[in-house]
Amino acid sequence: MPGNETKPSSETPTHIALPAPTMWPMVTAFGITLLVTGLVTNLAVSVVGLVVALVGAVGWWRDVLPADRHEHVPVVPPSERAQPVQVAAGRVEHLKLGQAGHRVRVPAEIHPYSSGLKAGIAGGAVMAVLALGYGLIRHGSLWYPINLLSAAAVPTLATATTEQLRAFSSTGLAVGIFAHGVVSLLVGFVYAVMVPMFPRRGWLWAGIVLPLFWTGLFYGTSKFINPALAGRVDWPWFVVCQIAFGMVTGYVVARSERIETRQTWPLAARIGIESQEERE
Amino acid sequence: MPASSLNPAVPIPQAAAAERPSIPSILHEWVTTTDHKRLGLMYIMAGLLFFVISGCMAALIRVQLAFPNNDFLPPQMFNRMFTMHGTAMVFLVGMPIIAGLMNYLVPLMIGARDMAFPRLNAFGFWIFLFGGGLLYFSYLAAPGLSGAGSAPDVGWFAYSPLTGKAFSRGHSTDYWILSIMISGIGSIASAINVIVTVITMRCRGMTLMKMPMFVWIVLVVAYLIVIVLPPLTAAQIMLLLDRFLGAKFFDTQAGGSAVLWQHFFWIFGHPEVYVLILPGFAVATEIIPVFSRKPIFGYAVMVGASVMIGFISLGVWAHHMFTIGMSAMSNTFFATSTMLVGIPTGIKLFNWLGTMWGGKIRFKTPMLFCVAFLFQFLCAGLTGIMLAVAPFDWQLSDSYFVVAHFHYVLIGGLLFTIFGAIYYWFPKATGKLLSEKLGKWHFWVFLIGFNLTFGPLHIAGILGMPRRIYTYDVGRGWDVWNLLASIGVIFQAVGILFFVGNILWSLWKGKKAGDDPWDAWTLEWSTTSPPPPYNFEVLPEVRSRRPLWDLKHPTDPDWKYE
Amino acid sequence: MGAARRRKPKILRREGIRAARATFPLTQNHVNPARISKLKRLGLVVAGGTGSWAFGADSAQVHSIANIFKPLSAPAEAVYEISLLALLVCAGIFLVVGSLLAYAVVKFRSRPGDEGTEPPQIYGSNQLEMAWTAIPILIVFVLVLVTARTTADVQNHPLPEDSLKVRVVGHQWWWEIHYPDHGVITANELHIPVSSRDQRRPTALRLESADVIHSFWVPQLAGKTDLIPNRANDMWVEPYQTGTFLGNCAEYCGTQHAKMLLRVVVETPEEFARWIASQKAPVVQDSSAQAGRDLFFNTSCVNCHRISGTAAEGVFGPDLTRLMSRSTLAAGAASNTPENLRLWVQNPHTIKPGCLMPDMQLNPAEVEKIVAYLLTLK
Q: Are strands C261-267 and C189-193 parallel, antiparallel or unpaired?
């Protein structure tokens, strides 16, 4: 049985040793308090405090040296002890997953987290290519979209003219790659854990609904998040880039093989125990 | 405790059990006790006493601010009030009640007979109590030799150089330093005790990942206390040297640094906020599962989040200092680290939500307090994110918005869970249930009062009202919000009266609790209420996080699935 | 703050009654009922769009409600934008999480007949936990980017070479204000020019402290910056609108922290130039107050106060050279009327208890003389 609180009383001791009551810690504490109080009242108080603290400390030492002082507390008679824990009369409801292990962490099968990271990289790459393509076609500059993205964090780019945005900026490049990378990886990760949660038509959710949802969020707040981008953004291109990201990321996640989580395994299986096989 | 028959044993006065003990003997028993349960209760009672005192001070503050140009309190008395209110609420109310809960519950929850260092435990309590007494003694004695001042009036974070000899004459600031310093010794003692107890004294079968969440979180709290109190003590000693021996650490007129104090103080002060709120989380993480009838959702992640909060909170202190003119880079760094704390905190909130989801929630008083905690802490967390955005903080810092924010943390978060904890564990400690009816009155009246007081103060802050002003003029748009806040205090006071009345009435006539009134799952509910001095006749052995669940549901035990 | 805006006229109307109840006639806000409609109109203009460069408005206009969500200056507006973003994000989170919580509380409450059954025991879900870790990280990441930009934008903002430079020194409990380029010293009321679309006129403030830490906070002009002894901090403002802006010391600085108020008078460039010129003009000796003048220079007033061009060169108290050009006394503690001035000279502690100006123990006749002299300092 788990827990042995219910063991028969014959095994309980008659007395239990506990530390004996003592006043010395209190005396020591009082002495120390007086000691510092002397600083703000009168030195005599400090002197008294020092003496009291020393007396308390010596008393305390004698409590524990050479051996702890104990008292043996008698155990209360069985009638006054805690009642043994009763088996609950009620019923426990169970999740119905159509499988044997009835109390599990859900879900039992997941896309590996690494698939999310891969998907994020793939989606981010496709999106970057599209965005750079836009920059080349519309503005004749690879740097333009990168600088626009970085303008969220870099004040000089946020106030730059379009001409300056077309020029190369090392800060812009670094911040842009960093920001785009972090966001792509995180969204890929979220896809990996959430794609299985969607009802049917995962591609619709991953590829269309979610990208449109965050595009909407960004549309509402772009003025604050990235005013430079908000003033120049070409929304059709922007939406196309987001959808491309969603499609690719969702596809990569969905293609990955689902793996079973070990949490449904019994402990013995998880720790890889070697034993004789149970025979029915 | 290793019990060896070689050790000297104190004989137990057998007569005491037979006849009714006299009052001095009861007093003697409590004063000399090393029992973690009695010390825990004394911590909590002392904390509640200081709570009532500094609560009254808060009420006086609100009376003064109810109307513009009010002259209910003279300026200096007002300044002393808010200093004493803040200092006492943090160091003499929050810390000891937390220490009390830790002391009372940790050995019971891990199946031990006492704390690892019972005498150190007693020492910790007494030095905290004397330290607290010393702080209030300043009201009588602080004129000191030079005749100026009374209680401290430098604010609870005592910014230098206002605390220097030149601007704070007399001894009031010294009282603040010394009393906090020696109370701090108590906190450190208590924290070390908790760490050692949890690491070494868990019952058989209780691995770290099978500890109740409460124990996990207070373990993190204890580590935080040990890490962050020394910087405060160091700074206080430096300040003492400045004031007594003419050192020049913070003396700006002699080339010292005012900002140095702020760094020291907030390296302590911000983690201190987590020291105060994490035990609130710990309580909620025990109560919410029991009343939702489900295990805590995502135990491992909750443990991870608690540890992460502990770590990250050590690196966010300068968000209290966004206005001192740090470089843009430093401001951004501390804004980032502060927002990062929001992530583990958010995880916790979601996991509590996950715990309630799909449960069968019983709305007993402890659970009511925890549900209110969830909503109010959500508000507090979100206003915290706003304050973390450095430019927003340039506006909000030191305004009433901040006051409202941290009262949502400390009352809406901590105090509500402390009330929940008291309603939940009172039956264990006394054997009597608290009245549900009075409890519900207490809850609703206090809930209304609290939100009425601190909700409007957010708006006062947004309208530019700085904190710590003893009066304000008409026409700044602050009057309505301040009046509302002051009206809220009446409700809060009535709520507290219900609470005190409930405790007294229930001690006298409360229903008998029995061993396990809430049908709960952790070890403290397997012993009697109140538990015997030795806690358990036989030390228990556990196989899962919910040992009592295993016993109650032998066909569905947890240990099969953990 | 829609609610606050709707309430504004009401508050102003009530002000008269409140003022009468006040201990002293401290009506520092020169708002009379006739101006209410104008204020209201202005409030609507402001609300309609920040950055509405309502140039040329009445410079006597007092912006008495210092709402941080109605910025009227460039740095305050930069802060306002990120504040609005943070507010939106937090409100969104609050709505989502709050309604989930409310739903759970209502939906999963135990119902009669539930006794004895336990719900399914669910330990967690790695998927969900990962999701609600990663999504907040994304939100935080976006906020961090914007915070980085705004912080650097406001703090490292390049100001034009010819922008006005002002040095503000905090004292317990008043503000010393220097215009080093103009050689003007004043106190408690900062005059600066308004900016316009075609001509930026930002003001660079250098903040220092003579004693303890103070904080310069005029919410509609900029976020606060501390004045720290032994350290010089910089901030800047660039108001779009004329008028008087109110602010407070925002760092607790001792007994009279509450009455360390700030007034920033934003004027048209012409008005500002006139003001500077009037401050710089040599002090005219008014012979009618000769007795008071003698008394002033024979008591210890001169140890602390400065009157330009005289032997009074104290630095511990506010400069009195143009005392009567200021609209308030004692850092906004009272409006600058002869009656208040008399009260103040008689015993400063009736108006500002605990302030560092001592009660000079003057008899009524002496008070009259001193006040008569002070009234000539225009």
A: parallel
Taking contacts as CB-CB distances below 8 angstroms, the residues of chain A near C121 are 92, 103
More reliable by pLDDT, B374 or A71: B374
Q: Which of C204, C229, C264 is the last residue of a domain?
A: C264
**CB atoms C135 and A91 under 8 Å:** no
**Same domain (yes/no): C94, C243:** yes
Quick one: tokens of B307?
């540890």
Burial label for B5, CB within 10 Å (0-12, 13-18, 19+), is exposed
Mutate which of B30, B34, B176, B553 to test chain A, going by most A C-beta atoms within 10 A?
A: B34
Same domain, C192 and C245: yes
Helix (H, G, I), strand (E, B) or coil at B273: helix
- B362 and A CB contact within 8 Å: no
Nearest to A190 among C85, C135, C153 (CB): C135
Query: Is C6 among the domain residues?
Result: no
In chain A, what are the helix, strand and coil shares in percent, each to the nearest 5? 60, 5, 30
Contact yes or no for A74 and B12 at CB 8 A: yes
Tokens 């004989």 — which residue?
Answer: B11
CA distance B378 to B465: 24
Give yes or no: residues C214 and C331 share one domain.
no
pLDDT at C43: 38
Tell me, yes or no, whether B262 lies in a domain.
yes
- Closest Cα partner for B183 from A29, A60, A35, A57? A29
Residues near A131 by beta carbon (within 8 Å), at least 6 away in sequence: A145, A149, A237, A241
B178-233 pLDDT, tens per residue?
999 999 999 999 999 999 999 999 998 898 888 999 999 999 999 999 999 999 99
Residue C281 within a domain: no
Question: How far is residue B430 from each of residues B434, B497, B507, B534, measured CA to CA in Å?
Answer: 10, 20, 8, 16
Decide if B386 and C31 are in contact by the 8 Å CB cutoff.
no
Residue B237 touches partner A, C-beta closer than 8 Å: no
Query: Domain of C366: which CATH number?
Result: 2.60.40.420
- Yes or no, beta carbons of B12 and A2 under 8 Å apart: no
Which CATH number belongs to the domain containing residue B267 in this structure? 1.20.210.10
Distance from C-alpha of B366 to C-alpha of B454, rounded to nearest angstrom: 22
Q: Is B29 on the interface with A (CB under 8 A)?
A: yes
Domain presence at residue B497: yes
Instruction: Please check whether residues C226 and C329 belong to one and the same domain.
Output: no
CB contact under 8 A, C88 and A107: no
What pairs with residue C165 in β-bridges? C204
Task: Inspect the interface and report whether the beta carbons of A16 and B171 lie closer than 8 Å.
Answer: no
Residues in contact with A108: Cβ distance below 8 Å, sequence separation at least 6, in sequence order: A97, A99, A101, A260, A261, A263, A264
Beta bridge partners of C313: C306
Say what the ipTM of the complex is: 0.87
Residue predicted with more confidence, A182 or C292: A182
Looking at the structure of chain B, the number of domains it has is: 1
Q: Is residue C234 part of a domain?
A: yes
Average pLDDT, whole number, for chain C?
Answer: 81
> What does residue B146 show for φ and ψ, rounded to 5 degrees?
-90, -5
Which chains reach chain B with 3 or more Cβ–Cβ distances below 8 angstroms? Answer: A, C
Quick one: tokens of B10?
């104190």
Whether C152 sits inside 8 A of B468 (CB atoms) is no
Do residues B459 and C1 make contact, with C-beta atoms less than 8 angstroms apart?
Answer: yes
Q: Are residues C136 and C199 in the same domain?
A: yes
Query: For chain C, what is the domain count?
Result: 3
B200 touches chain A (CB under 8 A): no
Name the residue among C253, C13, C90, A273 with its Cα closest to residue B161.
Answer: C253
Q: How far apart are CA C69 and CA B281, in angstroms?
A: 34
Residue B25 is encoded by which pair of tokens? Answer: 């003997």
In contact, A184 and A245? CB cutoff 8 Å: yes
